[in-house]
């Protein structure tokens, strides 16, 4: 840090003190607990938490009346979250999947009403086919092939909240009817794999599968994306490779359900 003779900004100092009240042993705290740990008055803590919650930095549990860190913190690397480990543990398997399929490979994590892309490796050989997503970008759950592979395993209330907002059609083949999407989610939950063609981009097929953590909760989804004409004749083989890769990552994350995922 540069040796500059000036005072720090007290408001920002206090906001950081509130964040630092959380730790690996104290991931969920009441306002009273945060106030005690940070030595900041409750009224001030409440205003800071309100701002953080509005910006996605913390989340409030209305049942337990506690706050816990939000996934928005991942962007700033302010807290080490278990979701960071998913990306780290998955990367060797995603690289292998890319090598085996020679297709674009993607991975995304769930975050509130969106997914957050954390991995992308494109196939440079398909001229003109570029996946319109970058690492760090957020997309709605109903955009593309990844989100629905996650959404199918989320709580029913969250599914209904997502379905309450009609999805934007990207092609004439995009499924926007809530009833059809619900049936699709049920099928994904049964089969633990999702194949989508021509719904986000014409002539493009995606195959996705969920990844589970040690508690059996959905932690991410992975996918391969490529030209429909290229994947059509080898769809079953590609589908199996995606499932196999998601199982390997789930196992690496400590999921004991791996044998039943397939």
Automatic annotation (TrEMBL):
<dbReference type="Pfam" id="PF01614">
    <property type="entry name" value="IclR_C"/>
</dbReference>
<dbReference type="InterPro" id="IPR014757">
    <property type="entry name" value="Tscrpt_reg_IclR_C"/>
</dbReference>
<dbReference type="GO" id="GO:0045892">
    <property type="term" value="P:negative regulation of DNA-templated transcription"/>
</dbReference>
<dbReference type="InterPro" id="IPR005471">
    <property type="entry name" value="Tscrpt_reg_IclR_N"/>
</dbReference>
<dbReference type="InterPro" id="IPR029016">
    <property type="entry name" value="GAF-like_dom_sf"/>
</dbReference>
<feature type="domain" description="HTH iclR-type">
    <location>
        <begin position="9"/>
        <end position="71"/>
    </location>
</feature>
<dbReference type="GO" id="GO:0003677">
    <property type="term" value="F:DNA binding"/>
</dbReference>
<dbReference type="GO" id="GO:0003700">
    <property type="term" value="F:DNA-binding transcription factor activity"/>
</dbReference>
<dbReference type="InterPro" id="IPR050707">
    <property type="entry name" value="HTH_MetabolicPath_Reg"/>
</dbReference>
<dbReference type="InterPro" id="IPR036390">
    <property type="entry name" value="WH_DNA-bd_sf"/>
</dbReference>
<dbReference type="InterPro" id="IPR036388">
    <property type="entry name" value="WH-like_DNA-bd_sf"/>
</dbReference>
<protein>
    <submittedName>
        <fullName>Helix-turn-helix domain-containing protein</fullName>
    </submittedName>
</protein>
<dbReference type="Pfam" id="PF09339">
    <property type="entry name" value="HTH_IclR"/>
</dbReference>
<keyword id="KW-0238">DNA-binding</keyword>
<keyword id="KW-0805">Transcription regulation</keyword>
<feature type="domain" description="IclR-ED">
    <location>
        <begin position="72"/>
        <end position="255"/>
    </location>
</feature>
<keyword id="KW-0804">Transcription</keyword>
């Amino acid at each position: 840090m540069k040796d500059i003779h000036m005072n720090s900004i007290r408001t920002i100092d206090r906001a950081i003190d509130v964040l630092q009240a959380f730790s690996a042993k104290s991931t969920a705290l009441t306002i009273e607990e945060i106030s005690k740990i940070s030595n900041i008055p409750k009224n001030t803590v409440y205003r800071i938490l309100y701002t953080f919650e509005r910006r996605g930095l913390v989340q409030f549990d209305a049942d337990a009346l506690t706050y816990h860190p939000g996934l928005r913190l991942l962007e700033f690397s302010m807290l080490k979250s278990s979701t960071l480990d998913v990306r780290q543990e998955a990367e060797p398997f995603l690289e292998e999947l890319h090598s085996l399929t020679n297709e674009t490979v993607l991975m995304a994590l769930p975050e509130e009403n969106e997914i957050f892309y954390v991995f992308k490796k494109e196939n440079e050989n398909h001229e003109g086919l570029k996946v319109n997503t970058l690492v760090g970008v957020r997309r709605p759950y109903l955009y593309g092939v990844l989100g629905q592979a996650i959404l199918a395993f989320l709580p029913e209330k969250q599914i209904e909240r997502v379905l309450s907002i009609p999805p934007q059609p990207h092609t004439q083949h995009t499924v926007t009817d809530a009833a059809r999407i619900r049936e699709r989610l049920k099928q994904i939950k049964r089969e633990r794999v999702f194949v989508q063609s021509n719904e986000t981009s014409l002539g493009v097929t995606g195959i996705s599968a969920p990844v589970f953590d040690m508690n059996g909760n959905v932690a991410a989804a992975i996918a391969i994306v490529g030209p429909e004409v290229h994947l059509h004749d080898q769809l079953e083989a590609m589908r199996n490779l995606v499932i196999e890769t998601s199982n390997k990552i789930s196992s690496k994350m400590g999921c004991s359900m791996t044998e039943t995922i397939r």
